[in-house]
Design a protein that fits this description.
The chain is an all-alpha fold. 95% of the residues lie in helices and 0% in strands. The radius of gyration is 41 Å and the shape is rod-shaped.
């Protein structure tokens, strides 16, 4: 092989090495960007899990409160019906019963 061919071949190899080095740098940069995106996505997922857990707790508390309010409302409705029946039957008994309930 003469020196000119060897020089050309070395120049081609140097160009190829340079291209591969650039491709490697780009691939590593893309990998770093993907890792950063993954970490941000994982953090977002964790934040959403926390928000969901909190929302579920609030919903459970609201359901319990609603059940309590419904129970109180049912009791009040029942007392009103009993008072109405007592008033229709004997107004003096209704007044006494109502006073006893408030003690």
């Amino acid at each position: 092989m003469d020196e000119r061919n060897l020089g050309k071949e070395l120049a081609l190899l140097a160009t190829e090495v340079d291209s591969l080095a650039k491709a490697l740098v780009q691939a590593e940069a893309e990998r770093a960007r993907e890792l950063e995106r993954r970490e941000r996505a994982d953090a977002s997922v964790e934040e959403l899990r926390l928000q969901l857990r909190h929302a579920r707790r609030r919903a459970s508390a609201a359901e319990r409160e609603l059940a309590g309010v419904n129970s109180k409302m049912d009791s009040a409705e029942h007392r009103a019906e009993v008072n109405e029946r007592e008033l229709r039957h004997d107004p003096s008994v209704a007044v006494i019963n109502q006073q006893e309930r408030h003690r």
